[in-house]
């Protein structure tokens, strides 16, 4: 598998969480998100406990709060959507600070914010403690369709290549006095996007031919076989197991 370089979300460390096999962490995060989504929105205390569980994982992984909070900024579009829900939703209304808000909209906004934030935080912790190459090996170990794993691997490997190509094209435009100002610059930018597509397509063709000439038949060789002991599975599944207990209490209380 390719993509051995470290990504920006990854934080190098030697914590017990870093040492866990990647497929155990993937399974744990997936199960945790399922439990969080299944929790009734009225059980606000349950979401607070989920946040405490994630904070405990971050502490065990030695991931600083600031590092994690910066990664949560990706949630901003969903926050904007949630803020609008109380104003546009139908149903019973309630006065809050002189504004007429929908009760269903308030519950919906809370539901999106709470569950979305916890899901993004769990994913950010996974990315902070697992390198991209290990994530791909973990997906392969969990029997994800090999074609999807290969596509993800190529996207990660050549994403930086395309970004570097875009940077060179930008420098070339600026060296010729181009400045992106107003509608008149759209034509140049559109031509640049078309040239980038053609270059990327041609590079992909050359890479595919090179792989076929070296014996590629549709599947990538597995270099490292990732395994996990029963103790490692138990350690990884402690998070979703505890969350499941909280979820069941949320439905019964």
TrEMBL record:
<keyword id="KW-1003">Cell membrane</keyword>
<keyword id="KW-1133">Transmembrane helix</keyword>
<dbReference type="Pfam" id="PF02361">
    <property type="entry name" value="CbiQ"/>
</dbReference>
<feature type="transmembrane region" description="Helical">
    <location>
        <begin position="43"/>
        <end position="60"/>
    </location>
</feature>
<keyword id="KW-0472">Membrane</keyword>
<dbReference type="InterPro" id="IPR051611">
    <property type="entry name" value="ECF_transporter_component"/>
</dbReference>
<dbReference type="GO" id="GO:0043190">
    <property type="term" value="C:ATP-binding cassette (ABC) transporter complex"/>
</dbReference>
<dbReference type="InterPro" id="IPR003339">
    <property type="entry name" value="ABC/ECF_trnsptr_transmembrane"/>
</dbReference>
<dbReference type="InterPro" id="IPR012809">
    <property type="entry name" value="ECF_CbiQ"/>
</dbReference>
<dbReference type="GO" id="GO:0006824">
    <property type="term" value="P:cobalt ion transport"/>
</dbReference>
<protein>
    <submittedName>
        <fullName>Cobalt ECF transporter T component CbiQ</fullName>
    </submittedName>
</protein>
<keyword id="KW-0812">Transmembrane</keyword>
<feature type="transmembrane region" description="Helical">
    <location>
        <begin position="20"/>
        <end position="37"/>
    </location>
</feature>
């Amino acid at each position: 598998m390719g993509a051995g370089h470290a990504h920006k979300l990854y934080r190098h460390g030697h914590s017990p969480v870093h040492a866990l096999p990647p497929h155990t962490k993937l399974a744990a995060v997936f199960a945790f998100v399922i439990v969080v989504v299944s929790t009734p929105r009225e059980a606000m205390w349950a979401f607070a406990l989920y946040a405490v569980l994630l904070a405990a994982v971050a502490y065990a992984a030695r991931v600083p709060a600031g590092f994690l909070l910066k990664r949560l900024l990706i949630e901003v579009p969903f926050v904007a959507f949630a803020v609008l829900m109380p104003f546009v939703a139908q149903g019973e209304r309630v006065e809050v600070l002189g504004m007429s808000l929908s009760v269903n909209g308030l519950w919906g906004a809370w539901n999106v914010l709470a569950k979305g934030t916890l899901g993004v935080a769990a994913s950010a912790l996974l990315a902070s403690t697992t390198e991209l190459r290990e994530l791909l090996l973990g997906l392969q170990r969990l029997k994800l369709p090999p074609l999807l794993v290969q596509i993800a691997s190529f996207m990660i490997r050549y994403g930086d290549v395309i970004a570097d190509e875009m940077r060179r094209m930008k420098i070339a435009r600026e060296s010729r006095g181009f400045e992106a100002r107003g509608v008149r610059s759209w034509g140049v930018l559109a031509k640049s996007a078309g040239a980038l597509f053609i270059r990327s397509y041609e590079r992909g063709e050359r890479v595919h031919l090179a792989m076929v000439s070296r014996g590629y038949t549709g599947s990538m060789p597995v270099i490292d076989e990732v395994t996990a002991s029963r103790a490692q599975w138990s350690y990884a599944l402690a998070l979703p197991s505890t969350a499941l207990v909280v979820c069941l209490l949320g439905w019964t209380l």
